[in-house]
């Protein structure tokens, strides 16, 4: 997509020329900083003076602060390519980014119950939804309308999370957060089906794997039904058993789906294997959640970290590393430093999800070591990609 008025485009600070720039860099920086605060908080340091419930803060900020910032950056950028309508940029993008950033900065000091924090944080996701709707309605590309109600759904979950915090209802908080985790994981499966086989075929010069219609429907319907069921079903033994069955079906379907995507040819392409290994955490996490519902010796919190520290952490890091290169006019070739970041990210996922399961006595060590690995992974990304995301495109084109 070329912008017609190149001179006008060049007057915009590069960071605000497209959504991926400010939200990828801001989200990555924030995730490393938030994880550092969480690590210090676990170690007994008073680094969150305004926060009443540090666990709530950690879960909320890694989902609604970090993960959804990355999703917003990706979708607002991709929408330009999908519709041919110039994406959000310049001062409108700066305003949305500020509405995202201010609650992140204020919450540690003012707390999750502060009215200003809540109001600011409830604004930015609906605004993104409205900005996504405009080009879709203009071009009538209804296939991409999916992202508008999705952002509305995340806006409602965000509001519910604050309601749970204000009312002191931790069970509701946990239900909302796990629903958000499942929804983000489901979004990865949607985007994975769109791009992973294409990325693989293009990078390895192999035939693109065509989807099996019934498998695609089973995979996606089962995981989205799991999202709604987790939010809406009562927590009775029968409902838990039904939900565990649904999660297990989704897990098996996604394992089969992943196995078809020609993963064997990705071993020498880090930008591919990080996506595939990250995706593998999704069916494992779904099975872990099913086991937690059936009281099979694992907590819901621990099970959910297969999806957060594992799937979200790795797939997001892999996607932003690739998309940032492509949309900044650079070859899809990463440095050794980013490969090291990928290894640390995968290690963070394994330590946080698997280590407490096989050795419960090392749970606190797992928390700390996983957080350190996360900080290193996203810190290395910020170090390498700062000049890429804050400078004009390497090929001289707008964007």
From TrEMBL:
InterPro entries: NnrS (IPR010266). The chain crosses the membrane at residues 20-42, 62-79, 91-107, 113-133, 145-165, 177-200, 212-233, 239-259, 271-294, 306-325, 337-355, 367-386. The keyword Repressor does not apply. It holds the Pfam family NnrS. Keywords: Membrane, Transmembrane, Transmembrane helix. This is Heme-Cu protein NnrS. It comes from Oceanisphaera profunda. The lineage of its organism: Bacteria, Pseudomonadati, Pseudomonadota, Gammaproteobacteria, Aeromonadales.
């Amino acid at each position: 997509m070329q912008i017609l008025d190149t001179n006008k485009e060049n007057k915009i600070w590069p960071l605000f020329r497209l959504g991926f720039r400010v939200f990828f860099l801001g989200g990555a920086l924030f995730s490393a900083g938030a994880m550092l605060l969480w690590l210090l908080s676990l170690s007994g340091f008073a680094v969150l003076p305004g926060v009443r419930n540090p666990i709530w803060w950690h879960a909320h900020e890694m989902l609604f602060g970090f993960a959804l910032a990355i999703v917003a950056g990706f979708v607002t950028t991709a929408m330009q390519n999908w519709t041919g309508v110039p994406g959000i940029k310049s001062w409108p993008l700066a305003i949305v980014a500020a509405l995202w950033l201010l609650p992140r900065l204020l919450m540690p000091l003012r707390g999750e119950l502060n009215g200003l924090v809540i109001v600011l944080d409830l604004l930015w996701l609906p605004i993104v939804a409205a900005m996504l709707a405009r080009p879709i309605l203009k071009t009538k590309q209804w296939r991409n309308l999916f992202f508008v109600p999705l952002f509305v759904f995340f806006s409602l979950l965000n509001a519910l999370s604050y309601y749970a915090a204000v009312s002191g209802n931790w069970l509701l908080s946990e239900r909302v957060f796990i629903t958000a985790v499942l929804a983000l994981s489901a979004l990865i499966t949607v985007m994975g089906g769109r791009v992973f086989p294409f990325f693989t075929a293009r990078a390895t010069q192999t035939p693109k794997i065509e989807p099996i219609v019934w498998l695609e429907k089973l995979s996606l319907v089962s995981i989205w039904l799991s999202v709604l069921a987790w939010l809406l079903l009562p927590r009775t033994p029968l409902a838990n058993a039904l939900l565990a069955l649904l999660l297990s079906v989704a897990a098996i379907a996604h394992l089969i789906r992943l196995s078809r995507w020609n993963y064997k040819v990705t071993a020498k392409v880090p930008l591919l294997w990080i996506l595939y290994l990250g995706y593998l955490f999704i069916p494992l996490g779904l099975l872990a959640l099913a086991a937690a519902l059936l009281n099979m010796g694992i907590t819901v919190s621990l099970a959910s970290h297969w999806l957060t520290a594992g799937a979200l952490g790795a797939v997001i890091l892999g996607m932003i590393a690739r998309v940032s290169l492509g949309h900044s006019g650079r070859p899809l070739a990463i440095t050794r430093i980013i490969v090291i970041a990928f290894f640390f990210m995968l290690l963070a996922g394994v330590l946080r999800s698997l280590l407490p399961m096989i050795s419960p006595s090392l749970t606190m060590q797992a928390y700390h070591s996983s957080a350190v690995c996360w900080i290193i992974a996203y810190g290395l990304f910020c170090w390498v990609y700062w000049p890429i995301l804050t400078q004009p495109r390497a090929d001289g084109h707008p964007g």
